[in-house]
Amino acid sequence: MTAVELLQRAHDLGLQLEPRTGGWLAVRPASKLPPDLAAALRRHKTEVISLLSLMVPARKGWQSVPPGDLPLVPLKPHPTPVQQKMVIAYLTRQCGDQQLRAWLTRRKSIYVRTTLNPWDSGILAYAAARDAACWQLNCTESEVWSLLDGIESCVENLMSWSCFYSRS
Question: Which domain holds residue 160?
Fold first, then answer.
C-alpha cells in the first residue's frame, strides 16, 4: 500500500492521522485502528508523515499557543461555510496540545463577554480559530483562507496523481 492509500483507508474508517514531534504518528480514535492498518502505518510511517506534512503548513507557529493578550477582532466575521470549516479544521488538527485547546476555549469566552450582539457558537469557534491561525501563520484572514485552500487543492492533486499512477 502507498502512503496515499493508507491515508485514504484511515479516512474511510473515520480515523485522524497527525504527525507529532519526534517522528511519532498519532491516530485518533486509536480504538478504531485495525491491526493490519496499524502494521502498515508502522512500515510506511516516514512516507505517511511526509505526506501529512504537505497537508499541514510548515510554519514556525504550528501548534504554538498565541499570547493571552492577543488583541480581539471586534467585528463579527463573515466567512463562507467552506472557509469556516477549513480554519476550524486547521486548528482542530493541532488540539492535541492542551495549552492550545485551553487558549481557544478562553478566547471564545472572551468573545462571548465582549460582543455587543451575541454571535452563534459556530462564529465564536471560528473567530477563536481564525485569531490563532492568523497569529501562527503571520497572515491576514484572507491569506489564511488562500493558504489553507491551496493545501486542500494540493492534497486533492496528490490523491488524483496517486490514483493515476497506481492504475498504470
Answer: 60-168
